[in-house]
Amino acid sequence: MDESPRPPSPSRQSQSPPPPPPQSHTGSPTDFLKGVVGKRVVVRLTSGVDYRGVLSCLDGFMNIALEQTEEHVNGVITNRYGDTFVRGNNVLYISAAEPL
Amino acid sequence: MASQILPLELIDKCIGSKIWVIMKSEREFTGTLLGFDDYVNIVLEDVTEFETTAQGVKKTKLAQTLLNGSNIAMLIPGSDGPESS
């Protein structure tokens, strides 16, 4: 059975309709995280402090390891760290800072 | 009776459209909903963050963003957010 979107021809009508395609959640949180590892990100904590750096790895708790980290408070760089570990409970969001 | 719909099914129907996310604190997000998971962590695209402070509302533009579900209070499907009313 081909998968082209054209409507089924009359000769195929006797067959049961094909099942709907599996819901392709290409935008799910897991997929987003897979795509963003190794890229520059902004991690904002619930306190409002931003950490900008290269996302090296993370887990299901949103615990995060960053490299080349800059700490931004109210838009001003307040610190630089080589490597940073952020505990996941503090994370408000992870945002891509370069095209994915 | 047969047409019961679950809350998360409603959100699933909103994938690809605009959504307004209100957090537990004085913070709101709008953007295009790309996906979510069982914890209602949410992936948005073309995001605007609205942060209400004593000085006023601070707006921040963001690209693709994963919002932590633990701080989300409410979702409003099909809305452009606080400035759309």
From TrEMBL, chain A:
Residues 28-100 form the Sm domain. InterPro entries: Lsm6/sSmF (IPR016487), LSM_dom_sf (IPR010920), Sm (IPR047575), Sm_dom_euk/arc (IPR001163). Pfam families: LSM. Its main location: cytoplasm. CDD domains: LSm6 (cd01726). GO terms for molecular function: RNA binding. GO terms for biological process: maturation of SSU-rRNA; mRNA splicing, via spliceosome; tRNA processing. Keywords: Cytoplasm, mRNA processing, mRNA splicing, Nucleus, Ribonucleoprotein, RNA-binding, rRNA processing, Spliceosome, tRNA processing. Residues 1-33 are annotated as: Disordered. Residues 1-23 have a biased composition (Pro residues). It is found in: Cytoplasm; Nucleus. GO terms for cellular component: nucleolus; P-body; sno(s)RNA-containing ribonucleoprotein complex; spliceosomal complex; U4/U6 x U5 tri-snRNP complex; U6 snRNP. Component of the heptameric LSM1-LSM7 complex, which consists of LSM1, LSM2, LSM3, LSM4, LSM5, LSM6 and LSM7. Component of the heptameric LSM2-LSM8 complex, which consists of LSM2, LSM3, LSM4, LSM5, LSM6, LSM7 and LSM8. The LSm subunits form a seven-membered ring structure with a doughnut shape. Component of LSm protein complexes, which are involved in RNA processing and may function in a chaperone-like manner, facilitating the efficient association of RNA processing factors with their substrates. Component of the cytoplasmic LSM1-LSM7 complex, which is thought to be involved in mRNA degradation by activating the decapping step in the 5'-to-3' mRNA decay pathway. Component of the nuclear LSM2-LSM8 complex, which is involved in splicing of nuclear mRNAs. Belongs to the snRNP Sm proteins family. SmF/LSm6 subfamily. This is U6 snRNA-associated Sm-like protein LSm6.
UniProtKB/TrEMBL annotation, chain B:
The lineage of its organism: Eukaryota, Fungi, Dikarya, Basidiomycota, Agaricomycotina. It comes from the Eukaryota. This is RNA-binding protein lsm5. It comes from Psilocybe cubensis.
